[in-house]
Specification:
This protein has about 150 residues and is α+β, with helices and mostly antiparallel strands. The protein has three helices and eleven strands; from the N terminus they run βββαβαββαβββββ. The longest helix has 15 residues. It is globular, with a radius of gyration of 18 Å.
Length: about 150
């Protein structure tokens, strides 16, 4: 079975654990930005999954970021590379985006993220430009495209 869904908004990443002292104890916690992104992933995923899968899973993730001002500037001839999603080589690291997606889908798409045994195509890129009906250009919306595929045992 193959399930595809989209998480709207600028993609987040898995942040490093934070630590604080509570009396004599030290407590680890997740930062607010990571928690917010994982919640968005869980909400978007919950619309696509009735019950979590229990077998092995393949995961593919495409994180689409807004174009930089240089890439989104529209010249007389049109924007630079309008129909291409250009690979993003700056932060955040792709593996941290994937970790946040897998953690956000725990209990939603699968029982535990240890079930993810394969990765399909994963990438982070800048949005492509789309032409409106009036001839003006705008960016495709940022977000994360997620494809979850069940695998045979």
């Amino acid at each position: 079975m193959l399930v595809t869904f989209f998480v709207p908004g600028v993609p987040g990443r898995k942040g490093r654990p934070r630590f604080s002292r509570r009396g004599p104890r030290v407590v680890a916690y997740t930062d607010d930005a990571t928690h917010e992104f994982e919640s968005r992933v869980a909400l978007a995923g919950s619309w696509s999954f009735d019950t979590p899968f229990s077998g092995p899973i393949q995961l593919a993730v495409t994180a689409v970021y807004p174009r930089t001002s240089d890439l989104s500037r529209v010249l007389r001839s049109g924007p630079k590379h309008p129909v291409l999603r250009i690979d993003k080589t700056s932060s955040p690291d792709l593996d941290n985006v994937i970790k946040a997606v897998t953690d956000g889908l725990n209990g939603v798409a699968w029982l535990d993220d240890k079930q993810v045994s394969r990765y399909g195509e994963c990438r982070k890129c800048f949005a492509c430009m789309l032409m409106n009906g009036d001839g003006s250009w705008e960016q495709e919306p940022p977000g994360v495209e997620v494809v979850v595929t069940t695998l045979e045992l």
